[in-house]
Design brief:
- The protein is α/β, with parallel strands linked by helices.
- The protein contains 9 helices and 9 strands.
- The chain has a single domain, classed as Rossmann fold (3-Layer(aba) Sandwich).
- It has a 9-stranded mixed sheet, sandwiched between helices.
- 48% of the residues are buried.
């Protein structure tokens, strides 16, 4: 009895102290802590809970098991340089599957590493390949006919360069998981997880970005059972709103070995407290479905954030992360993106890893990829280009031992 009383007395002293630490404001500053144990036991859980509850939303507790169906495979894709696979990811209750498109190097013995990411308007837009299956959810209309858009986004997916470097590319269309418009969460995957009588996610439950990240994890489910893919060496990548998604997927699913954010801006890599370019209020007004409803508490109130976006990057540690910007992409606040990478770096150092290798923002086309946190700013507009991919391949080579 005395031992129990002693334990409870000590716990009563310790728990309030730890709670106070956990609830401190981390702000838009470097995340510097006393020890790795303190980060893991106190600060990381508090920061993760903040992003789950107040930014991207909690995932549903209900589990939905995907079923995979190989729809098509060719060993002569990209002029014989690649193997093409098309897989249907079936989810009970969804009227249409998530279509997964994979290109991987041909003639390679053993497993290959991969880049995984979503695309904006359909798998058929990433390459002119006429055999790519068009999703029933892909956009249509005056400028988006059945065949006209094939390859329209090929500049963003330089398949021959990526496959030639020894990597597979796995992509899904975002609209197969959740449509990118405010439809009251009546379409997409959200209704699969509603409780009896529920018609929309609660204020602390996932929005569209959370759903997209969940979808990328289902791709990982497939890659884990594909014997030709090295699922231990998979990088999740995304541009713009899909860059926000890639960071959140990397933070919540440790199976992604690297996370890459290209021009992700507000709600992605950029520090919100700077209020440069797109702000929390602006993004919530324009895209009310992206985040959980609780995020609206920070409209014109960024000072109230428990932690800024450097906390999102820190959640990925000790796995490598890459943040990239473009000089003309002022809406995404390139300096704010750089500072997030810099401010997350002390957490990597707690793990004994080198974070960002530079302390001041590098000039355009002078990438910093020596550490576990990579960064570059490229001359040009809001886009993902061949130059960007070349840096990501170099970064992946470095950390995948290639």
């Amino acid at each position: 009895m005395k031992k129990l009383f002693s334990f409870l007395f000590v716990a009563a002293l310790l728990i309030p102290s730890m709670g106070a630490v956990a609830q401190q404001k981390y702000g838009a500053k470097p995340l510097e802590f006393e020890s790795l144990k303190e980060w893991k036991k106190v600060h990381r859980p508090a920061i993760m809970d903040f992003f789950l509850t107040d930014v991207y939303g909690h995932y549903p507790q209900k589990q939905v098991t995907p079923r995979f169906e190989l729809l098509e495979q060719s060993d002569k894709a990209l002029g014989g340089k690649a193997i093409r696979k098309q897989v249907a990811i079936h989810l009970d209750g969804m009227p249409t599957p998530i279509l997964l498109l994979i290109y991987q190097p041909a003639g390679v013995k053993g497993k290959v590493p991969a880049f995984v990411g979503m695309n904006f308007k359909g798998n058929h837009q990433i390459n002119i390949d006429p055999e790519i299956i068009i999703s029933a959810n892909a956009p249509t209309g005056k400028d988006l006919g059945t065949d006209a858009p094939r390859g329209a986004a090929s500049s963003r997916w330089p398949l021959e360069e990526i496959v030639g470097a020894g990597y597979a590319v796995a992509t899904i269309y975002r609209g197969d998981v959740d449509p990118d418009h405010d439809d009251g969460f009546k379409n997409g995957i959200h209704p699969l997880f509603y409780r009896a009588g529920q018609t929309k996610p609660d204020a602390e439950e996932w929005g569209t970005i959370g759903a997209w990240a969940w979808g990328l994890s289902r791709v990982m489910d497939y890659l884990e059972q594909d014997k030709s893919i090295d699922h231990k060496r998979v990088a999740v990548i995304g541009h713009s709103r899909l860059g926000k998604t890639a960071l959140w997927a990397g933070a919540t699913d440790e199976r992604f070995a690297i996370a890459i954010s290209n021009d992700s801006g507000c709600g992605g890599a950029a520090l919100s407290a700077r209020k440069v370019g797109e702000t929390v209020a602006k993004i919530n007004k324009s895209f009310p479905h992206w985040f959980c409803d609780n995020y609206n508490k920070y409209n014109d109130n960024e000072e109230a954030l428990l932690v800024d976006q450097q906390g999102l990057i820190a959640l990925i540690a000790p796995r490598p992360v890459y943040v990239a910007s473009a000089t003309e992409d002022t809406w995404a606040d390139p300096e704010g993106e750089f500072l997030s990478a810099l401010y997350a770096s002390p957490v990597y150092e707690l793990y004994g890893k080198k974070g960002l290798a530079v302390s001041s923002m590098p000039k355009p086309e002078q990438p910093s990829i020596e550490g576990y946190v990579g960064y570059h700013i490229r001359t040009g507009k809001h886009d993902i280009t061949l130059y960007d991919w070349q840096q990501y391949i170099k970064f992946a080579n470095q950390h995948f031992g290639r």
